[in-house]
Design goal:
Elements lengths: L1 E7 L6 H17 L7 E6 L7 H11 L5 E10 L3 H13 L4 E6 L7 H6 L2 E3 L8 H20 L7
Parallel strand pairs: 1-2, 1-4, 3-4, 3-5
Helix pairs in contact: 1-5, 3-5
Length: 156
């Protein structure tokens, strides 16, 4: 199952970029044997500053046709890492070819796009900077592969 990380804003060089690159490489390496991956990133920018609706349109275009749409949203479900790994496995085992995780901009995700999502995931009640959410999602995706592979990375 291919995994897509679709997000508003381009992540330039820096510590966040280095972390994401590391976790994407790890995910791809570990996930391959599990039928997960590759993990690809799709960054969009609302260069005209038209707001959440314009961002939603750009994000919608970045999501592959037929992909399960999963949004990162504070109103979503909070899962443990093992539960998140199990959810990925259910999608994969259910025949999903693609899953797209969507991260909105600084103002969040337009309600119309959020309402179309089949799944909403929350990293807790706190609001996180959207650039950090990318890092956290990349790490949790890698962690999920290590859980499914029975590796030592996740210690619970």
């Amino acid at each position: 199952m291919r995994v897509h990380l679709c997000a508003v804003g381009r992540l330039r060089q820096g510590p966040e970029r280095a972390l994401i690159d590391d976790y994407v490489t790890r995910f791809d390496r570990t996930g391959r044997a599990l039928g997960l991956g590759p993990l690809s990133e799709h960054a969009v920018e609302d260069k005209r500053g038209l707001g959440m609706a314009a961002e939603a349109e750009l994000l919608s275009r970045a999501v592959p046709t037929g992909a399960l749409l999963a949004v990162l949203d504070e109103r979503g479900r909070s899962l443990t890492s093992p539960d998140f790994a199990a959810q990925l496995a259910r999608w994969r085992d259910g025949g999903r070819q693609d899953v797209a995780f969507v991260i909105g901009g600084a103002d969040g995700i337009d309600p119309a796009l959020r309402d179309r999502a089949e799944f909403a995931l929350s990293f807790g009640a706190m609001v996180w900077p959207h650039m950090l959410v990318r890092v956290m999602l990349a790490e949790q995706l890698y962690r999920a592969t290590t859980i499914l592979a029975g590796g030592p990375y996740h210690r619970a």
